[in-house]
Every structure is written in C-alpha cells, then in structure tokens.
Amino acid sequence: MDDEKNEDWRNQVPESERLGDSSRISDSHWEDLVNQIAEPSAMMGDMPVDEIRDRLEEEEGWEPGPAEPIGWRTASPTLMLSVIATFGAVLLLLIGVIFFRPLPDWYLLVGIAVGLGGAVGLFFHLPTSPSSDGDNGASV
C-alpha cells in the first residue's frame, strides 16, 4: 500500500484525533508487524512450526470415541432427590412468605424439615476421597 493512496481518508480525520508524524508508522512496518502476528512461533518449542502443522494434518482423521452420558440422568436417585428437596424447600418457603400471611406453623416446619433433609443428603454425597486421576486440584 502506498501512503499517497491513503492520504484521502487521513484528511477527513478530525484534528483532535490525528497522530503526529512521530507517532505514525509506515505501512511497510505495519505489514511486517501483522505478518509476525499471523505466523505463530512457539517459544521454547521442541518442534518447528512447520513440523507441528504436518503432524496435525496427519492426525486429522482421528475420531474420538463415544462420549459417556452426563447430566442428571446418570446421577444417583438419592442425589437428585436431595437437590430437588433443597431447592424445593426454598421455593416452598418463598411462595409461603409471598402468598400466605401469616405463615402457618406446619407450613414453616415442613419447609424447614424438607430443606434440612435435602441439605443433609447433599452433604453425604460429597466425595470422601481425592479423585482417582492423581491431580492435586490446582487446575480446572
């Protein structure tokens, strides 16, 4: 790119936003910077970039195995019951406070009992030993 070709838009920039000649870099210097950013270089890498690209191209045919099912369907029924009881008790008490004034004693006792029962169930579902993969938990 020539600087002369780009001068037409540079004249339309307000004076308060213009760069001085000392702050401006040439287009060739800018293109060199962009090319350096576009070509990643591995710092202290064991393999050159071209060799990494070649290996990645060779391994493109790799297909992962079937994923294991995740989510609430694989969880134990007592865990799900504890989660539902804990959140259900909070919702039950919140609805009671909003719609039933004064709150009946039995309603309050049932809500607290269900919430505490769910919390105790969740407490007993906490892991009792470190994970079997051997990590120290420092990474997510």
List keywords for this structure.
140 residues, transmembrane helix, 5 helices, mainly alpha
Could you please describe the fold and organization of this structure?
With 140 residues, this protein is mainly alpha-helical. The protein has 5 helices and no strands. The protein has helices spanning 3-10, 27-38, 49-58, 77-99, 105-124. Helix 4 (77-99) runs antiparallel to helix 5. The longest helix has 23 residues, at 77-99. The relative contact order is 0.07.
In short:
Residues 7-27 have a biased composition (Basic and acidic residues). This is DUF2335 domain-containing protein. This protein has helices spanning 3-10, 27-38, 49-58, 77-99, 105-124.
Shape: elongated
Instruction: Evaluate the radius of gyration.
Output: 32 Å
Helix vs. strand class: mainly alpha
- The tally of strands reads 0
Discrete helix count: 5
Distance between the termini: 46 Å
Topology, element by element:
Blueprint: H1 3-10, H2 27-38, H3 49-58, H4 77-99, H5 105-124
Helix pairs in contact: 4-5
